């Protein structure tokens, strides 16, 4: 059974390897040579440096973003720099589900979390670099919610934003984790997790003692969120000090997409992130990563139709983000254009994690005097290779010289995305985000035309 999952979980981020017959490469970006929207028609002012990518979300607590990006849920590998770089760049970042399980000091009482100091580390990795833009969000899955993780994080750790998880594109179910002994199985069960087979059953214990029982697995519960429960739950967390609330959803059946959006409207949710096929995770079934879920570009087309329907009913829509396989500025621009005006945030996970890991490694090599050959053409010092450090000194002062270079790498990666987006926006004579729309792209294939026209569907 273990072969269903990647065998390097925890050491790698794993993503879909499937080549989908329809993706964002089936669209090209348009361009204009007349006019300017969001800037004066003045060639000295209407240029790439005057494109404004800033945006704001939040129904009662405004959250400013330097660019329309969220770094989706992650809690493995170099999370410190992933969150830190997000804060430097002024974007959203999400602490992944089950975060408390990473804490060796974790304690429960009656199935509820009462001690998980590592949560403060996760939040602090972002907060130490916060400069007025972005937000760090704690994701809660169904088990986290049952264990009271959200209220503990708000009361004891200063968390201000919670994301309720419905699903993700890499796994529409929750993972099964092998447990080696019956003693460990009993501990997991005491914490409130599902364990299979049930270690409290006499026949299971007898079979275990005879070395004839199946392996024990702890299994995350499938979310069974109910509208009435979530509405009350969100109100309660707000009473404790939660300032913003988010939903995370994947490319499930279109009926479920609409139901989640309606629930978000009812609960006053600030943003819903929809995750399409083509993404990945740290621990998801190998085949599920490739063979389930609506591809991102197709899901986006369906979402636009749903959001148009809800808007026609006079509903107050949440901010909507799209993610799943997005890495570079061309993909982000196409996603924003195809989703406009309803989908206005893009999620990027693996690209940002790759930046965190590679920049951390390169920084270590430079400090040890072993500069990788590919980088020597730029120089041999940190300042010569990490070219965005002067910008960070402008924001933080000389303490930027002490920053983790992995986080600086994430900042540089997001800075590159920002600069690239500005080029595409200026190409279409759009100098602020609200002017980007579907006319900024055009389809290259018949199938892409169906997505573009909003008629693609199940």
From TrEMBL:
- GO molecular function terms noted in the UniProt entry: glutamate synthase activity
Q: Pfam families attached here?
A: Glu_synthase
Domain Glutamate synthase residues, every copy? 226-347
Gene3D superfamilies to which the protein is assigned, alphabetical: Aldolase class I
Offer one example of a GO biological process linked to this entry. Answer: glutamate biosynthetic process
What family is this protein classified in? Belongs to the glutamate synthase family.
Q: What is this protein called?
A: Glutamate synthase domain-containing protein
Print the organism lineage.
Answer: Bacteria, Bacillati, Bacillota, Clostridia, Eubacteriales
């Amino acid at each position: 059974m273990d072969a269903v999952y990647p065998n390097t979980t925890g050491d790698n981020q794993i993503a879909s390897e499937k080549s989908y017959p329809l993706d964002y490469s089936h669209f090209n970006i348009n361009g204009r040579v007349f006019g300017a929207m969001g800037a004066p028609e003045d060639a000295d002012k209407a240029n790439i440096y005057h494109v404004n990518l800033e945006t704001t979300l939040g129904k009662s607590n405004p959250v400013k973003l330097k660019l329309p990006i969220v770094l989706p849920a992650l809690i493995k590998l170099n999370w410190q720099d992933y969150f830190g770089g997000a804060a430097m760049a002024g974007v959203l970042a999400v602490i992944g589900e089950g975060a408390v399980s990473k804490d060796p000091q974790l304690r429960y009482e009656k199935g509820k979390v009462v001690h998980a100091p590592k949560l403060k580390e996760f939040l602090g990795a972002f907060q130490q670099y916060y400069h007025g833009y972005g937000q760090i969000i704690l994701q809660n899955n169904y088990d986290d919610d049952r264990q009271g993780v959200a209220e503990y994080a708000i009361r004891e750790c200063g968390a201000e934003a919670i994301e309720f998880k419905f699903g993700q594109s890499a796994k529409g179910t929750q993972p099964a984790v092998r447990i080696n002994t019956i003693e460990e199985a009993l501990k997991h069960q005491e914490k409130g997790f599902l364990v299979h087979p049930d270690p409290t059953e006499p026949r299971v214990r007898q079979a275990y003692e005879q070395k004839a029982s199946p392996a024990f697995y702890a299994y995350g519960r499938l979310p069974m969120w109910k509208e009435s429960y979530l509405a009350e739950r969100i109100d309660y967390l707000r009473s404790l000090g939660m300032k913003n609330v988010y939903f995370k959803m994947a490319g499930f059946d279109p009926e479920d997409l609409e139901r989640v959006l309606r629930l978000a409207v009812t609960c006053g949710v600030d943003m819903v992130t929809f995750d399409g096929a083509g993404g990945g995770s740290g621990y998801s079934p190998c085949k599920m990563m490739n063979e389930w879920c609506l591809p991102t570009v197709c899901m986006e087309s369906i979402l636009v139709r749903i959001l148009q329907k809800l808007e026609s009913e006079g509903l107050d829509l949440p901010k909507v983000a799209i993610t799943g396989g997005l890495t570079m500025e061309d993909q982000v621009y196409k996603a924003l254009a195809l989703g406009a005006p309803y989908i206005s945030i893009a999620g990027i996970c693996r690209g940002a994690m790759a930046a965190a890991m590679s920049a951390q490694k390169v920084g270590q090599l430079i400090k040890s005097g072993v500069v990788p050959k590919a980088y020597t053409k730029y120089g041999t010092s940190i300042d010569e290779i990490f070219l965005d450090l002067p910008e960070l000194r402008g924001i933080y002062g000389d303490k930027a010289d002490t920053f983790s270079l992995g986080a600086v790498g994430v900042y540089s990666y997001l800075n590159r995305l920002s600069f690239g987006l500005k080029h595409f926006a200026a190409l279409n004579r759009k100098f602020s985000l609200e002017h980007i729309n579907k006319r900024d792209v055009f389809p290259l294939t018949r199938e892409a035309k169906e997505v573009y026209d909003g008629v693609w569907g199940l």
